[in-house]
C-alpha cells in the first residue's frame, strides 16, 4: 500500500459538510423515514435532504434499497466518523466505550483487519487517556477507497517531551529511539510498554506526530523515518493506516517478537540511525550506551544499521564486545550493514574472542 498523507481521516471528514455527517449518523442509528426526520431535525427542506442523500449514495457512504416511501437506507462501503471527548482525571474515559461510538466504521472489515483496528484503537486511545495530561481527545476514523485510517489527537504535553522528561533523556529524539525498542513505559505499575511497539507493526503505516518531530513506520520499509516538521501541532497525533484487504494477522506479528512457547515479548529490532543526533557520527561509547539502554530486557536484539554509513571502534566495541560479555543471555544480531560498519563489528567480535 502506498504511503498516505498524514491526517488522512481529517481530510475525509472535511470533505463532508456538518449536515452530511449528521445524516450519516441518522443512517447509522437506523432512523425510520430518514429524509422526513432529517429535514425536521436539521431545519432544511425535504428537497435539500433528498439531494444530499443522493450525493452520499453516489459516493458510497449510503446504500439505498427499495423505492419511494418503502426505501430503506443503510451505511455504504465508505465510512467516516469523528468525535471529541473531554479528558478528566476524576471521571476517566473508557477506551472501550469510545470504541463503541466508532465500531460502525469497522463492522464490514475482514476479521483479521477488524481485530487489528480494535487493538490499535484501544491501545492508542488508552495511552492518550492515561498519559497525555491533556484536556481534550479528538478521534477520527474512516474507511475510504479501501483504506482504513484511524487518528487519535490529544492536546497534552506531547509524547516525546513526556518520555524525555520522565526518563531524564538528553533529547526528544532519544525518546523516539527508546519507543522504537519497545517495553518503554512511564507507568510500569499499569502498563507493559508493549502497546505502541506492537501497534506500529500490525498496521501498514504508523505515524506519531508531536513536538516538531514525525516518527514514521511503514511495514514495507526496512527503515523507520524520523523527520522534522514545522506544523503547529499541540500535543500528540497518532495515525494508523491499513489496507482493508490486508492479510496481516495480529497473532503472526506478536509471534514474531514473542514466540508462542515463551509467552513474552523477547525480541526487538532497533533502528540504530535513530541514535544519531544532528550531524554526529556514531563513534563514542556514550552513543552506544544510548542504543543499548534497556536491551538487557530482551533475549534477541536485531540492530538495524540501515542508513548508517559508518561507526567508530569505541561504538562497536561497547556493543559487540563489552555488552555481549556482560549479558551472555542476550543475543545481539545485526542487519543492513555496509562494509565500513561490518568491518568495525567484526573487529569487536574478534577482540572478544581473542583473535
Topology:
Elements lengths: L7 H7 L3 H11 L5 H9 L3 H13 L3 E4 L6 E4 L3 E8 L8 H12 L4 H21 L4 E9 L2 E8 L4 H8 L5 H10 L13 H8 L2 E6 L2 E6 L6 E4 L7 E8 L6 H8 L9 E5 L13 H8 L7 E5 L8 H14 L4 E5 L3 H14 L3
Parallel strand pairs: 10-11, 11-12
Antiparallel strand pairs: 1-2, 3-4, 4-5, 5-9, 6-7, 6-9, 7-8
Number of H- or I-type helical stretches: 13
Order of neighbouring strands in the sheet with most strands: 3-4-5-9-6-7-8
CATH topology name of the largest domain, in short, is: Heat Shock Protein 90
| The number of domains | 3
User: Can you give the helix content as a percent range?
Assistant: 40-55%
As a percent range, the share of strand residues is 15-25%
Major sheet: size, sense and barrel closure?
Answer: 7 strands, antiparallel
Low-pLDDT runs of 5+ residues are 260-264
Structure notes:
- With 355 residues, the protein is an alpha+beta fold.
- The protein has three domains: 8-75, Orthogonal Bundle (Arc Repressor Mutant, subunit A), CATH 1.10.10.10; 79-253, Heat Shock Protein 90 (2-Layer Sandwich); 266-352.
- The chain has 13 helices and twelve strands.
- The protein has helices spanning 8-14, 18-28, 34-42, 46-58, 95-106, 111-131, 159-166, 172-181, 195-202, 250-257, 285-292, 313-326, 339-352; strands at 62-65, 72-75, 79-86, 136-144, 147-154, 205-210, 213-218, 225-228, 236-243, 267-271, 300-304, 331-335.
- It has a seven-stranded antiparallel sheet, sandwiched between helices. The chain has a three-stranded parallel sheet with strand order 10-11-12.
- β11, α12 (313-326) and β12 form a beta-alpha-beta unit.
- α7 packs across α8, α11 (285-292) packs across α12 and α12 packs across α13.
- The longest helix is centred in the middle third of the chain and has 21 residues, at 111-131.
- The radius of gyration is 24 Å and the shape is elongated.
- Residues 260-264 have low confidence and may be disordered.
Amino acid at each position: 500500500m502506498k504511503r498516505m498523507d498524514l491526517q488522512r481521516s481529517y481530510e475525509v471528514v472535511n470533505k463532508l459538510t456538518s449536515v452530511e455527517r449528521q445524516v450519516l449518523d441518522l443512517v447509522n442509528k437506523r432512523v425510520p423515514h430518514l429524509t422526513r426526520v432529517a429535514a425536521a431535525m436539521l431545519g432544511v427542506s425535504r428537497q435539500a435532504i433528498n439531494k444530499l442523500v443522493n450525493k452520499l449514495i453516489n459516493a458510497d457512504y449510503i446504500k439505498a434499497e427499495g423505492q419511494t416511501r418503502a426505501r430503506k437506507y443503510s451505511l455504504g462501503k465508505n465510512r467516516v466518523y469523528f468525535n471529541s471527548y473531554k479528558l478528566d482525571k476524576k471521571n476517566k474515559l473508557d477506551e472501550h466505550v469510545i470504541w463503541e461510538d466508532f465500531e460502525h466504521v469497522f463492522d464490514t472489515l475482514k476479521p483479521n483487519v477488524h481485530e487489528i483496528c480494535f487493538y490499535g484503537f484501544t491501545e492508542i486511545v488508552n495511552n492518550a487517556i492515561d498519559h497525555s495530561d491533556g484536556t481534550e481527545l479528538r478521534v477520527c476514523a474512516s474507511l475510504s477507497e479501501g483504506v482504513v485510517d484511524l487518528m487519535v489527537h490529544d492536546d497534552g504535553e506531547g509524547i516525546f517531551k513526556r518520555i524525555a522528561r520522565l526518563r531524564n533523556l538528553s533529547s526528544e529524539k532519544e525518546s523516539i529511539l527508546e519507543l522504537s525498542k519497545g517495553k518503554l513505559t512511564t507507568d510500569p505499575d499499569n502498563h507493559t510498554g508493549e502497546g505502541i511497539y506492537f501497534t506500529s507493526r500490525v498496521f501498514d503505516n504508523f505515524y506519531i506526530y508531536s513536538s516538531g518531530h514525525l516518527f514514521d513506520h511503514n511495514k514495507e520499509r526496512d527503515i523507520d523515518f524520523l523527520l522534522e516538521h514545522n506544523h503547529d501541532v499541540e500535543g500528540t497525533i497518532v495515525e494508523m493506516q491499513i489496507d482493508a484487504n490486508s492479510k496481516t494477522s495480529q497473532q503472526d506479528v506478536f509471534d514474531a517478537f514473542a514466540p508462542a512457547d515463551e509467552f513474552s515479548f523477547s525480541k526487538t529490532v532497533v533502528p540504530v540511525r535513530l541514535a544519531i543526533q544532528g550531524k554526529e557520527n556514531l563513534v563514542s561509547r556514550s552513543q552506544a550506551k544510548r542504543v543499548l539502554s534497556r536491551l538487557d530486557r530482551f533475549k534477541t536484539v536485531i540492530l538495524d544499521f540501515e542508513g548508517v554509513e559508518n561507526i567508530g571502534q569505541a561504538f562497536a566495541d561497547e556493543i559487540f564486545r563489552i555488552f555481549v560479555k556482560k549479558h551472555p543471555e542476550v543475543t545481539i544480531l545485526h542487519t543492513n550493514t555496509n562494509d565500513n560498519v561490518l568491518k568495525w563489528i567484526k573487529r569487536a567480535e574478534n577482540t572478544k574472542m581473542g583473535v
